[in-house]
Amino acid sequence: MIRNTGAPRGYLSATIDTTDSGTHIHQTRLFEDNIALLLQQKEQILMTPEYFLSPLSFCYASVGVPGFGSISAALRLGHLLFGWEQGILINQCNHCQGQAYIVAFGGNLKSSSCWYRMWCQNCRLWLHLPATKETTRKRTDSIKEVLRKSPEYFEELEQYATYGFSWSGDGLMPATKSRLTTRMLFPAVLGVYELNKIELLRDLYLWAHKRSADRYAAVRHSLGEPDPFRLKHRDALRQVIGTIVREKLDRAAAFKYLETWTAENLAEDERDEFQRVSEDEILALHEGNFARYQVRPSEFEAWRVVWDRK
Ligand SMILES: [Zn+2]
Fold first, then answer.
1. Distance 92 CA to ligand 1 centre (A)
2. Cβ-count burial of 292 within 10 angstroms (0-12 exposed, 13-18 middle, 19+ buried)?
3. Cα 5 to ligand 1 centroid, rounded to whole Å
4. Model-level pTM greater than 0.70?
5. 53 — phi, psi (to 5°)?
């Protein structure tokens, strides 16, 4: 349910009209149904660029700031999570007094026609409310800072081969120079955004759901059908497997490391079993479960390349 409480309609409809309305409604429903899941998976989403940059058609900041330029930006899932965490995009719900999540805000700081839109998870209600200039200015400054810290492109100095002047020979000699280039981050994700496709978003929800199911299964496993050996060595397993990934060990090096580690840290009658369990866990590592070993996505990717090399 969208409750419009008299904030200027122009801003909201102007942006929504550029989006296919079917997609928009679909994304809104996905959001309403899964926000708890996303909050639960917050850290992993903030660490994974593809998820961080997930587009949400109804999330944006559009503020006119006289004399200081303006802001008109799509807010990605990561920006929202960050803003919610920092309290920039949090406001009290005026029905239940609980915390509600702001997903869009806008207006003009000169004409005082500012507004924001938020979702109250308790009431399961969208609220569209007028905002003060001061609050909107604060929100604008803060969100500009968030956007600045997570750019979608970056500039870098690129080395390129060319020729330089030389006094000898034909007057030219090979040289390496640098030039400034702009590179888009995650072009595939941006492509998805431009096309307003929602497959990626759906993938994200499925992934988050699976992650939460994994965790539930793991908890249930340890409560309901305990494997005393895994339970006893849970921390050791996490440490050993985390090290193998972070140190980018290939199969031979990992085997050697396991052998040495167990010899130094475990009683003799536990070593074989520990190695077997560790090997099982390593072979079962995938994108959906590496986080439990406190491994970053970039570390997992880098290790994967080494591990799959024959
Ligand atoms: Zn509420």
1. 8
2. middle
3. 15
4. no
5. -90, 15
